[in-house]
Amino acid sequence: MKLFAKYNRINIAASIAVFLAGCLAFYFVFRYVLTRQIDESLRTEQTEINQYVKEHNQLPEIVEAYDQKISYQLVDKPVQDLRFISQKVKTEKRKRYEDEWIRLLVFGVAVNGKQYEIRVSKSEMETEDLLILILLIAAGMTGLILVMNYFINAFFIRRLWKPFYQSIHAVQQYRLSGQQNLQLPADPIDEFDLLNKSINSMASRIHADYNILKEFTSNAAHEMQTPLAVIINSIDAIIQQEPLLHLVEEPIFTIQKSADKLIRLNQALLLLTRMENRQFESKEEIRADLLVEHKCNELKELITVTGITMEISVVPVTVYLHKYLAEIVFDNLLHNAIRYNIEQGFISIELTERCFSISNASAIPPLDPAKVFQRFYRHPETGPGGNGLGLSIVKQICDLAGYPIHYRYQNTLHTISIAWK
User: Cα–Cα 20 to 30 A to 81, which of 64, 193, 250, 299?
Assistant: First the structure.
């Protein structure tokens, strides 16, 4: 759930609760005020009756009013208490009886030695109507305020959070292997400015550590070339000494295999370093069909010796890639298909205007699609032949060129496909 949606839920729920509580409080307070006004009006009527009795020594004549009624009742003993009563009565309106709330004042008065109970009542209907009207207006204003608040929040909060999403987009687009460091701009909002500064600082430290590691890898790979060349030359010299070779034949060939593997690893690391340093930025038109056929012819003898059956289907296709990198892609994929095949195995190569795919039979179970292009990933049943960098190099070259690469396993066949976008 987005922050804005969660904020809106909490804000709207809190606003509705506050407005409902406010409306209820307003209703009871306003009802209390209006009831007090009616009571004051009834008290005024009582004062007028008492004043009239005092001056004339008789009860005033009853005059019917629209919202007020007065009644006299002779009683045996004086009415001691002054009482205000709210009660519901039946009143005739439009030739029918309806329930109506009235406010009633009951008090006593003595006239010529006789005790009377005076009842003065006023209708509360207008008060109720006024309260209902006020509540409807309050509810309408509440709804309008909530709607306006939602759209205002939607507009201003989106504008307010725009720098945040810009920073997130910049972080998503940032690549550690790029030449430029991440630099998020300053922002007038303190929290976003602090976030950008923190991300800039973190990115600078990571970029510096990455450059140190990359430089170390590059220097180590370059420095390893000379000792490796000395080792290979020394091994060749020992192999040429037949009397000595008989004494140390097995260790020498073991050293030679290890040295060859180390050379391939060193070359792969150098290639990865050069790609990360953007030394293959230039692209040219490459006839992929001619390059595939050339690589297949180069490996034809090896394929024949291993007894592998190869099916090739290519059409003229032009891709845009550095020529050296294109050779590495097809060379690595072909060598992998041969190295990890089975006796009397099978390789299928298909090149179309949409993609290139190579499939090979293998005794190795399905590889992990999430790890197959990671550096040094090797299935436990792969064997000691490779170094786990071949597919990683192919993947990095394809990423550099913008060509998606995918792996799938179906019917005991491992398939690598590259889409030409």
Answer: 64
Range in 14-28, 196-210, 274-288 the model is least confident about: 274-288
- Pairing of the two strands 346-351 and 309-314: parallel
Tens of pLDDT, residue by residue over 350-362, are 999 999 999 999 8
Q: pLDDT for 86-113, tens place per residue?
A: 777 776 665 666 677 788 888 888 888 8
DSSP for 190-220 reads: HHHHHHHHHHHHHHHHHHHHHHHHHHHHHHH
Angle at 316 between CA 315 and CA 321, to 5 degrees: 120
User: How far apart (Å, rounded) are the C-alpha atoms in residues 72 and 378?
Assistant: 109
Residue 412, both tokens: 């005991």
Rg of the chain over Cα atoms, rounded to whole angstroms, equals 48
- Name which of 261, 256, 336, 258 is nearest 299 in CA terms: 336
Strand partners, 416: 358, 407
**Among candidates 199, 192, 195, which has minimal Cα distance to 173?**
199
Rounded Cα–Cα distance for residues 413 and 273 (Å): 32
Confidence of residue 383 (pLDDT cuts 50, 70, 90): low
- Residue 333's alpha-carbon distances to 143, 255, 392, 397, in angstroms, are 66, 27, 11, 12
Tokens 């060749």 locate to 236
**C-alpha–C-alpha distance, residues 193 and 45, integer Å:** 71
pTM over 0.90: no
Half-sphere exposure of 193 (CA within 13 A, CB side): 5
Counted residue by residue, the chain has a size of 421
Question: For residue 207, what pLDDT band results from cuts at 50, 70 and 90?
Answer: confident
Could you count the other beta carbons within 10 Å of the beta carbon of residue 66? 7
| Share above pLDDT 90 across residues of the chain, in percent, rounded to a whole number | 10
What does the alpha-carbon distance between residue 205 and residue 210 come to, in Å, rounded to a whole number? 8
